[in-house]
Structures are given as structure tokens and as C-alpha cells.
Write a structure and sequence with these properties.
This protein has a six-stranded parallel β-sheet with strand order 2-1-3-4-5-6, sandwiched between helices. It has helices spanning 18-29, 47-64, 77-88, 112-120, 156-165, 184-200, and strands at 3-8, 33-36, 69-75, 93-97, 141-147, 170-174. By secondary structure, it is α/β, with parallel strands linked by helices. Helices cover 39% and strands 17% of the residues. Helix 1 (18-29) packs parallel to helix 6 (184-200). It has one domain: 3-Layer(aba) Sandwich (Rossmann fold), CATH 3.40.50.1820. It contains six helices and six strands. Strand 4 (93-97), helix 4 (112-120) and strand 5 (141-147) form a beta-alpha-beta unit.
Length: 201
């Protein structure tokens, strides 16, 4: 049985960007084969649409590797998609980097301008998805990564809410990191987590 990680970039990003290849190489060193998920990002696209498109790619990979242990990695909107799909596929672990606060339960904690933009321009959907059932993640290793300079975009109320929903998840706050997965400190934190996944498997 092999191991596969699905790497899902953030909104507007592509899996062929250098830092995603670097992340894939880190997984490969731990014996986990990367599968890069390319979402055709569009305006006024719901999270469900993104997840459905990603799932189409995932099914194709699983046709060739039906018995692999699965891992999910995502950044920003991609982390939302990874979080939703990891439960569907009973993943061994998920690494969620700066996951966007656009689940239904997040909205009341967003600054007004962010709430407005997310409601009418970014991924509106007919109704925002709720956080997936916490019981689906009881046997899954979950790592939440956030930068300490993400600002109001990921505020303490949202962080606390996620910790209450998923108390088994491990939260890592990265010093001097913004909402930018390619930063040096952010990439080092990712490398540390991936190394930990390798030692746990």
C-alpha cells in the first residue's frame, strides 16, 4: 500500500508554482507521493464548486492508486476544499495552511468589508457550507497553520471557534508570517510538519 497527498493551492494559484513543487518534494522525501490538484478558479464560484472540481481530479488519481493511504494539504481557499474532502476519503492526515474563514459559522466574526466581499464577490454559493462534522476527523491527524501577521482575516474568535470544534487538531502559529505560503518561515513550518507526518506513518 502506498501513500498519496493531494496538494490544493490557494485561490488564483496554480500547482506548478515553485513553492508547491517544493512542498511536493518534501512529501516525497517522506515516502508520500504528491498529486497536484489544479482548480480552475473563477469569480463567484462556490466552495462546493471548487470541491467538486477537485474531487474529479482525485478520482482519476485513485483509479491508479485505489488502496493508498491518503493525505490532504491545502492553502487558503484550497485548505477549505482540503478540509471538506479529507473527511470524504477518510484521510490519514490533513495539513491546513491559513484556511480561509468563509464557512457559515465564520461570517459573524469577519470585519464588515471582508464579509461584504466574501458575500458578493468571492465564492458566494447558494448557502455557505458549514464546518464538516467533527466526528469525521476523530481518527485523523489535523494540523492548522496560521501566520501571526494574518491580521483580522484570521482573528482570535475564528481560531478559538475552530479549536472548540476540533479539539484534537494541532495549531501552529508561525512567527513573522503573513497570508503567504511561500515565505521562508512559513515554508520551514510546513517542512517540520511534513517531517512529523513521515515519522508518524
Amino acid at each position: 500500500m502506498g501513500k498519496t497527498v493531494f496538494i490544493i493551492p490557494g485561490s488564483g494559484q496554480r500547482p506548478d508554482m515553485p513553492h508547491y513543487f517544493q512542498i511536493g518534494e518534501l512529501f516525497e522525501k517522506q515516502g508520500i507521493t504528491p498529486a497536484y490538484i489544479n482548480i480552475n478558479w473563477r469569480m463567484r464560484q462556490s466552495i462546493e464548486d471548487c470541491a467538486e472540481e477537485a474531487e474529479g481530479h482525485i478520482r482519476k488519481v485513485l483509479e491508479e492508486r485505489p488502496h493508498d493511504d491518503l493525505y490532504f494539504f491545502g492553502f487558503s481557499i484550497g485548505a477549505m476544499v482540503a478540509h471538506i474532502l479529507s473527511a470524504h476519503y477518510e484521510a490519514k492526515a490533513q495539513v491546513l495552511c491559513s484556511m480561509s474563514p468563509f464557512f457559515k459559522e465564520d461570517i459573524e466574526y469577519l470585519p464588515f468589508h471582508t464579509r461584504l466581499i466574501s458575500s458578493f464577490i468571492i465564492y458566494p454559493g447558494s448557502e455557505r457550507p458549514k464546518y464538516p462534522n467533527p466526528f469525521a476527523y476523530k481518527l485523523m491527524d489535523t494540523y492548522w497553520l496560521i501566520g501571526d501577521r494574518e491580521g483580522k482575516y484570521l482573528n482570535q474568535k475564528i481560531i478559538t471557534q475552530r479549536q472548540n470544534l476540533y479539539p484534537e487538531a494541532q495549531l501552529l502559529v508561525i512567527q513573522n508570517a503573513r497570508h503567504d505560503i511561500s515565505g521562508k518561515d512559513y515554508m520551514q513550518a510546513i517542512a517540520d510538519i511534513i517531517s512529523r507526518l513521515g515519522s508518524n506513518s
